[in-house]
Amino acid sequence: MKILVIQQKMIGDVLVSSIICNNLRTAYPDAQIDYLVYNSTTPVLEGNSSIDNVILFEEKHRSSKKELLKLGFQIRDEKYDLLIDAYSKLESWILVFLSNAKRKISYKKPGRSFLYTDNVPFEPFPKTNLGLAIERRLSLLEPLDLKIEIDPTPKLFVSEKENQEAKALFEKHNVNKDRKTVMISLLGSEKLKTYPLDFMSKVVDYIADKADVNILFNYFPKQIEEAKIVFNNCKTSTQEKIYFDLLGGDLRSFIGLVNQCDLIIGNDGGAINMAKALDKPSFIIFSPWIEKKIWATFEDGIHHLSVHLKDYRADLFEQKTEKLLKKESLSLYQEFKPEFFKDKIELFLEQNLS
After folding, report:
1. Lower CB count within 10 Å: N or C terminus of the chain?
2. CATH code for 2-144?
3. Reported pTM
């Protein structure tokens, strides 16, 4: 049996959709399972034995119709028995149409159901604490009636070499071995997903005041100026606990560093999803325009918590579309005072650092 799973998009999406591959591997241990993703997301798939081949969707496939069609015919040549489209956008529709796969599964959306043999309802609300991001992916397996116990948890695989390299970095930067370590998801993937920097400084201060911990900042070198703003706005006593220059050289080394941490706090995004896949407790500060019900995965009030402005100022969201919320997100962020959830952060720390 040959299976193709499609999930173009960002790191978090690719990591979460890998649960489709993982469960298919359990159900069909001898199948060939291939996964089509963006090149930038492949580090989160390293070491995953559920995936036989990673097929790259590259920039040339987005910019050139000829290259996109070429990829589609390459997929057709593979003669897949089953195709699961977890992306379900124009680019994947073209690939699905060209694939000639025997069975094709995706979400039921207007105007595209003819492309698939099985159209699964795109549920608007979560039914469990798994969150919609997980539940929707798992729903794509339902038409197969798999005779297995479904595992909903995304997984990252860290080699012993990567663990040792991360430990060596900790030693190089003289990280205090007697303290637990908190990773701060400092910046979102864009400004509209980034908690205001002055507010984030207060959050870091709350953490340092509440617990005697090491604090690491997650940021790219090109974001160093924003990271410095957060650092400089922290209290001196907080700054003494921050290892500002302790960074991974690439995504795999960052994963190794997160694996040495005890928990993560900060903006929603790839870093949070990677930490969860490493079984690290998480506290998420959501952007006002992002729907918490989708990405607040595995919420249990203990190991995984999240906050959203709507939790405190629901009046600001009345009769506003997602498009309008996105447009107003920067001003809405200014209403999302860190004082609103200081007690929640302190509770989270108590529950996960003791």
Report:
1. C
2. 3.40.50.2000
3. 0.95
